[in-house]
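In this section we walk through a basic example: taking a raw amino acid sequence and producing a predicted 3D structure, encoded as discrete structure tokens. The instruction is simple. Fold the sequence below.
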Amino acid sequence: ILKSTRTTRLLQNTPPAYYSIFQNTSYRRTDRKMSLFEIIGDSFLATDGTTVIGPEAFNDAELVGLYFSAHWCPPCRNFTPQLASFHEELTKQGRKFPIVFGSSDSDQQSFQDYFKDMPWFAFKFKDEKIEELKKKYGVSGIPWLVVLDKEGNLVLNEADEEVPQGTPVFNEWVQKVTVK
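The resulting token sequence is shown next.
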């Protein structure tokens, strides 16, 4: 009885917005903005396909790309070399644009065969984040490139349509972030 009296007194002196803390032990604030790594996760494969890396690999990045693609997809196999050239040209210019590959391949071997030629990171094969992010950004086909700022805000969805214009579009994407 003493315990319930203490709880009642506590609830009487607590703003209504916080009642759920006492009523539900799985309470989680939903008004807080998620960080980049809460959105995309914090464990990725390095370009060698086996080394696991974390958020430190994204230090000093101006923007982050999420690239959804698959080995079996002819348009993807045409676009991936364009994106790789775009990425490499940015690197030569001293720009940091980490990209994380989310595979839609159905088997590990296809994923590995495709990823081995990519100069960026990847989600682990069949990582749950891939489907979660595809849903979040409305990915309805592949190839599909999503560009986020370093806080996790969406800069451009379907950026794959702009990549063929060359690296000047990267400056436009960065400009979108600085204008906000």
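Looking at the output, two observations stand out. The CA atoms of residues 145 and 160 lie 5 Å apart. The helical segments are 2-12, 19-23, 36-40, 74-92, 108-115, 128-136, 168-179. In the next section we compare this with other chains.
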